[in-house]
Amino acid sequence: MLYDFKVTKYPESLVSRYKDELDKQFKATLKSYSMEFSDYLSQSGMTEDDYKKQLDDVSKEQTKTHLVCEAIADKEKLSVTDDEVTKQIETMVSTYQAKDAAALREQFKTNYGVDLDQYVKTMKLQEKVETFMKKSVKIKE
Question: 106 to each of 1, 40, 82, 93, 131, how far by Cα in Å?
Fold first, then answer.
């Protein structure tokens, strides 16, 4: 089965969500290295407008990936169960050295502006779509 996707209009709410999440994640990473955002800009030779443009481009690409994965998952009836989300979060608790799942959810919300359950569900769905595509795609040389 061949899929041909073209995004003609990006849902602004989804682009905005990804933009906010990416910005918070990036700035949290800078903070973990004791680096100020302004220092990053000057050291990288970027202006704030350059950063915003890059953030916009990456957000649109993530939105496209999200939309494509959802379309394939819907067409192929792929889904992620609540049990799969719970198990993945339990694994992440030890990886992130969190006290428990509630603490990890709070950590993701505070540091990255991300709803952990939705993040994990999206990740797991993308994994399932990738697995499906790898099994379904034949490359001709």
Answer: 41, 27, 19, 12, 30
